[in-house]
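Record Protein-arginine rhamnosyltransferase, 378 aa.
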Amino acid sequence: MASWDIFCSVVDNFGDIGVTWRLARQLAAEHGHQVRLWVDEPAAFAALCPQADAGLARQQVAGVEVCRWAADWQPQALADVVIEAFGCTLPEAQVAAMRAAERQPLWLNLEYLSAEDWVAGCHGLPSPQGQGLQKYFFFPGFVSGTGGVLRERDLLARRRAFQADEAAQRTFLAGLGVVVQGEERLISLFAYENPGLGEWLDALAADPQSTRLLVPRGRILGDLRQWLGETAELEPGFVARRGKLQLQVLPFVSQDDYDCLLWCCDFNAVRGEDSFVRAQWAGRPLLWHIYPQEEGAHWDKLGAFLALYLQGLSPAAAQALQQLWQAWNAGTGMGEAWRAARMHWPEWRERAQSWCAEQASRPDLATALEQFYQNSLS
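=>
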């Protein structure tokens, strides 16, 4: 058993802690490691993990020791592996202790997920930190030569069983207050603020097929409220209907329940990194709202992913899907883009399933990290 320290600075509420919490659990449960997760905003962690207590400085949850990373952080017993998640800066006292150690730990900078071509060339490269200490760049990714993405060993088996069990899906949705009517199409929506939302909702309201839009509490609710003309905040349980569209606000749910929500839906609009990856494992068509970056750097990342994801589609379907993703991220043109994309629904659904199978054939992120650690010992 090796010991692992994972440091996470919460950015944008849930993305970074979402990834590191899944990783910490998997390293403990599947690889038998002793894992400490250091997080600077315990309240964000508790939102994803309801059994946690945001007021505790240390607690054991799902086999992981979750610790508050406070400003007055003091050196701890050094772990065998130290993960600096997403470029957060380790405490100076931690780095000093690592430099002075007779047996220095493996220091990994876990980077953000990207499909860009240069990622494979930078994955695993060392960065000298003085006095013999090295930091290695570890890049998740979708192709060989990268670190893969998070996937628990039994994830796809659990997903397939759940999607084959209509009674289990109805029971789960009923627990959220959702009772599906007839042949409604289910869509989940978890996104950043987006001025293009109204155009999409107009298209869904005018669509020949009935849609139930399920919206967990989040940043998109302000745009939803504006489209509805509501003056009060939209609380969980709120329901409204416009034409063929019925929308419903859900509570913010745990990670495990969010997985089930994605598995229930025919289409998932997601944001950031964690929900983006989990929507891919759902095997259903998806729409990604990428985190906006300065100088438009996120457009290159979006284009790089689409270059992989759209492979094998007919030219017409690939063009329609690309235009839909671009419209959503640009915040304009969603009505026309949605109407064009839905014409290719069967092909899109088949591609979602084949993409999921392709990614499942690669080592997952936790396994890749484990192998990198084992290689460092030899």
